[in-house]
Amino acid sequence: MSRKPKQRRRPRPSTIALASGVVIVVMFAVYARLSGGDAGPLTYPTYTAEQIAQGEQYYQANCATCHGATGAGNSRAGIPALDGSMHAWHHPDSQIAAMIRQGGFMMPAVGPDWSDEQITAVTAYIKEWWTPQQRAAQARLGGTP
Ligand code: HEC
């Protein structure tokens, strides 16, 4: 037979205040991370002029037929723009590399045996179309700025 305890222990007001403070700080940190607002200035471009020039050649030879010479895509054919006007800059570098090597739903595997250097060059060229803000946001998702 157990007796009811006379008093239940309640969290003290100071504990409650501390806990809500922690929750608010965590929520703010998550928000700042999602909105990409906290990472400070980024220095870029980190690609060399040579990489970009190489990338231009690869792009114009392998990608421009579909995505357009200026990366504007072809909305009637359902081919997305790679410039900053659509969604391309929401992909980390690894996804762009996977698109090139493995293809997508509609996109063929254009460069199944492209070297890392070739992938990096063409990616560097595409990023020339993005604004500094888009580049910074993409870098936070997992890209070279
Ligand atoms: C035969 C046409 C074709 C060629 C050539 C092509 N693509 Fe694509 N690409 C597409 C289509 C269609 C999509 C839409 C997504 C899908 O198919 O999964 C796409 C999607 C993409 C995406 C994702 C864009 C987004 O907004 O999500 C990237 C990045 C991309 N292509 C890069 C390239 C690069 C770099 C090359 C050249 C190495 C290339 N593509 C060559 C047709 C092509």
Protein traits:
145 residues, mainly alpha, Cytochrome Bc1 Complex, Chain D, domain 2, 6 helices, binds heme C
- Number of helical segments? 6
How many extended strands?
0
Mean pLDDT: 84
Any guess at the CATH architecture of the domain at 49-142? Answer: Orthogonal Bundle
Alpha-beta classification = mainly alpha
Oligomer: single chain
Largest sheet: none
Q: Helical percent range? A: 40-55%
Low-confidence stretches: 35-42
**Amino- and carboxy-terminal Cα gap:** 69 Å
The unique ligands bound to this protein are: heme C
What is the succession of H and E elements?
Answer: HHHHHH
State the shape.
elongated
Strand content: under 5%
> For the CA atoms, what is the radius of gyration?
24 Å
Structure description:
This protein is an all-alpha fold. It has a domain at 49-142: Orthogonal Bundle (Cytochrome Bc1 Complex, Chain D, domain 2). The protein has six helices and no strands. α2 (49-62) crosses α5 and α4 (93-102) crosses α5. The radius of gyration is 24 Å and the shape is elongated. The site of heme C has 24 residues, from α3 and α4.
